[in-house]
Design a protein that fits this description.
Elements lengths: L3 E9 L8 E7 L6 H11 L4 E5 L8 E6 L4 E2 L3 H15 L4 E5 L2 E8 L2 E7 L3 E4 L2 H11 L13 E3 L5 E5 L13 H11 L3 E6 L9 E7 L4 E4 L3 H13 L7 E6 L7 E7 L4 E6 L1 E10 L1
Parallel strand pairs: 2-3, 4-6, 11-12, 13-15
Antiparallel strand pairs: 1-2, 1-18, 3-4, 4-5, 6-7, 7-8, 8-17, 9-10, 10-11, 12-13, 13-14, 15-16, 16-17
Helix pairs in contact: 3-4
Length: 287
């Protein structure tokens, strides 16, 4: 029997339409097979689309699966914000427990933002020598432009990122990445994404600015990444470079889609990832 899905488009890590990071949200996804979810994600052509289903146990309030146009992802921060912006608009604000492939996270509305409580990402190995030189060359980045206090490091477990500090935020605007070469390097480096950041931002109202390239995932440049900012907070804290255990990151302005991400390391070994989200449109799709 055919049915109709309700689909929302939401811009995350922003309160202004057509900025931040866009995500699709498909409600009532119970019973959809992976082939159909992947086809819908490919048609919407956002970096990620979230598929929301009813809970299947008493320890959570909803289930969410995330799909890029190519494959399923374990957890996506900006698409999670998008889901809870839609649920808040349609069902009201409350704390919700979201179950996914990587476990259960709690999401709540706090001071006009959505807050996701997450475990801190594990830190991996440092990247240096010829390997670092190859990455910098593929990014169009001179090695002497790197931040010497922030050694390049792999972060994360399921979906890893290479965290690469740049001394001057103005350098980020000059990057000319060779996306094909970055994608090819991902297998040997062990990270499908390259998150470049500067603690000396060239834009106001933030403690750092960043860009992220993920060509191995089919994403030339990710507008705004919550997950990567969470990884970065853990990295900077370990280096003694995160005053107060907080950061406010600016990303997306190089693509004309500016957004803001806030991260706070909490006392329980977790972190709070915060951002706003702005619904853009709603549509229906018979399946």
């Amino acid at each position: 029997m055919s049915r109709t899905l309700v689909i929302h488009q939401v811009d995350a890590f922003t309160d202004t339409r057509f900025t931040g990071n866009p995500a699709g949200v498909v409600l009532g996804a119970d019973g959809l097979d992976e082939t159909t979810m992947l086809a819908i994600a490919r048609e919407l052509n956002n970096a990620d689309t979230a598929f929301v289903s009813a809970p299947d146990g008493g320890d959570h309030d909803l289930r969410v699966r995330f799909f890029t146009p190519r494959t399923e992802a374990g957890f996506v921060g900006h698409a999670t914000l998008a889901v809870h912006a839609v649920l808040t608009a349609t069902e009201g604000a409350r704390r919700r427990r979201q179950k996914g492939r990587t476990g259960i996270v709690e999401v709540a509305s706090v001071d006009g933002q959505f807050e996701i409580r997450l475990p801190r990402a594990p830190m991996g190995r440092s990247v240096q020598g010829a390997e670092l030189a190859a990455v910098c060359e593929a990014l169009g980045l001179a090695q002497d432009a790197l931040d010497s206090r922030c050694p390049a490091r792999i972060a994360g477990s399921g979906s890893t990122r290479l965290l690469l500090g740049v001394e001057d935020g103005r350098t980020l605007a000059t990057l000319t990445p060779d996306l094909a070469r970055l994608a090819a390097l991902s297998a040997s480096v062990g990270a499908p994404g390259y998150f470049l950041f500067s603690r000396r931002p060239a834009v106001p109202d933030c403690t750092l600015e960043s860009r992220m390239f993920c060509p191995a995932l089919g994403i030339p440049e990710d507008p705004v990444s919550g997950n990567a900012h969470g990884m970065l907070a853990v990295h900077l804290d370990a280096l003694g470079l995160l005053p107060g255990g907080r950061l406010r990151g600016a990303q997306g302005h190089h693509l004309g889609r500016p957004g803001r991400v806030e991260v706070e390391l909490t006392g329980d070994g977790q972190l709070a990832l915060r951002g706003r989200a702005c619904p853009v449109f709603e549509t229906r799709l018979p399946v």
